[in-house]
Design a protein that fits this description.
This protein has 399 residues and is an alpha/beta fold. It is built from 13 helices and 13 strands. It folds into two domains: 130 residues, Aspartate Aminotransferase, domain 1 (Alpha-Beta Complex), CATH 3.90.1150; 254 residues, Aspartate Aminotransferase, domain 2. The strands form three sheets. Strands 2-8-7-6-5-3-4 form a seven-stranded mixed β-sheet, sandwiched between helices. The chain has a four-stranded antiparallel β-sheet with strand order 9-10-13-12, with helices on one face. A two-stranded parallel sheet has the order 1-11. Helix 4 packs across helix 9 and helix 11 packs parallel to helix 13. The longest helix has 23 residues. It binds pyridoxal-5'-phosphate. The site of pyridoxal-5'-phosphate has 13 residues, from helix 4. It holds the Pfam family Aminotran_1_2. GO terms for molecular function: kynurenine-oxoglutarate transaminase activity; pyridoxal phosphate binding.
């Protein structure tokens, strides 16, 4: 709908600007290459060797171990295919999968499709106060402990958390790790937002914690890493035994991920690795630019009198419009389903596409989320100006 109507779309997590120039150059070079027919044929089902080597090199320091590029990496069509195949490989009907809520909206359908039962643990402040920033959120340890039992097959741990931007502390991760050890649970560590940490804290890869490698599949996204979500490159890193069923999944579904795209991505990653920790690093640029964009959204919402929880990481901002909905005629939107009306009103009346909070919270947590909307802040200044002008002309500024 957003594409057809030329709407401003902040509902999904993608930027409205290009990947870095060296990625575009690499793609051009690959498609212009007529000397190697291999570039245009199936890659190995685990992924193109050049890309696996680059991923292994990038991940070894994060995981504090050598990564075997031939056995411990699987390239998939986006991170989402790794999630899907992890569910298919490990979750049988009736198996329970622990999730923190709010969560990436596709977790639940992926788990339910294979007959799994999601068990939701709310992220919340432990003192009952309203959170001011996403890192004020935590979880009740007793509640998490009570969620584990002999039906628990996996925990899907998204760090930093989409949509809130919460970064799990080492202490929290160690606590989760102990439970996984006790109940022999597999960890699907979705770390696609690992390059979007805004407070200078280093990213802790769950698999790097003592004893966790053997039970962890770490999932990362090439799209998020290089602002290229349409290239559909993602990968899983983990012990060969854990990746085996997922590899069969890739073979059965698509045989292999497109080779030219994998090769261009590998070339881009090689360039980036030369620049790591320098001013030219794209990862440092991502942080600098994302912080500036996040802060513009925060300022805008503050001027509008709309409540937000400052995200300490990630690419989304979650805003609660409850204080300003009385300023519009919501009855113009006839679809009254809980949590959808405001979002549909903004699409139909203002051509602005956001994601309703209803899709992010488990039902039990939904009561306070009727007018909560999620927006991706990875947008150009021009787009942010347009959003600001739409929202200010709709809701005015706070008096
Ligand atoms: C937490 C999380 N996991 C996985 C994905 C999917 O990533 P990809 O585009 O690489 O499939 C996303 C995309 O927004 C995400 O936010």
């Amino acid at each position: 709908m957003a594409v057809q109507s030329n709407a401003i779309d902040v509902s999904y997590g993608y930027p409205d600007y290009n990947p870095p120039q060296h990625m575009l150059d690499a793609l051009r070079e690959v498609t212009a290459n007529h000397t190697s027919w291999r570039l245009h044929q199936y890659s190995h089902p685990r992924g193109e060797a050049r890309l696996r080597r680059a991923i292994a090199k990038l991940n070894a320091p994060l995981m504090r171990r050598h990564i075997d590029a031939d056995r411990e990496i699987l390239v998939t069509l986006g991170a989402i295919q790794s999630l899907d195949f992890a569910a298919r490989a490990f979750v049988n009907a009736g198996d329970e999968v622990v999730l923190f809520s709010p969560r990436f909206m596709y977790y639940e359908p992926i788990i339910r499709l294979v007959g799994g039962v999601p068990i939701h643990i709310p992220l919340k402040t432990l003192n009952g106060q309203k959170p001011r920033q996403s890192n004020d959120l935590s979880f009740d340890r007793k509640q998490l402990e009570a969620a584990f039992n002999n039906r628990t097959k996996m925990i899907w741990l998204n760090n930093p958390n989409n949509p809130s931007g919460k970064v799990f502390t080492e202490e929290e991760l160690l606590f989760i790790g102990q439970l996984c050890e006790r109940y022999d649970v597999i960890v699907m560590a979705d770390e696609v937002g690992q390059y979007y940490h805004f407070e200078g804290q280093p990213h802790i890869t769950f698999a790097s914690l003592p004893g966790m490698w053997k039970r962890t599949i770490t999932v990362m996204s090439g799209g998020k890493t290089f602002s290229s979500t349409g290239w559909r490159i993602g990968w899983a890193v983990g012990p060969e035994e854990l990746l085996y069923g997922m590899t069969v999944g890739v073979m059965a579904a698509v045989l292999a991920v497109p080779t030219p795209i994998q090769t261009a991505f590998a070339m881009g990653l090689e360039v980036e690795m030369e620049r790591l920790n320098t001013n030219q690093s794209y990862f440092s640029r991502l942080v600098r630019e994302s912080v500036a964009k996040r802060d513009r959204f925060i300022k805008m919402f503050d001027e509008l009198g709309i409540d937000v929880v400052k995200p300490n990481a990630g690419y989304f901002i979650v805003a609660d419009f409850i204080n300003v909905v009385h300023k519009i005629d919501l009855s113009l939107e006839k679809d009254r389903r809980f949590g959808l009306q405001l979002s549909l009103w903004l699409i139909h009346q203002k051509n602005l596409v956001t994601l309703p909070g209803k899709l992010l919270y488990h039902l039990d947590q939904n009561s306070g989320s009727e007018f909560v909307l999620r927006m991706c802040f990875l947008k150009t200044d021009d787009t942010i100006n347009q959003i600001e002008s739409v929202l200010k002309s709709t809701f005015g500024t706070k008096s």
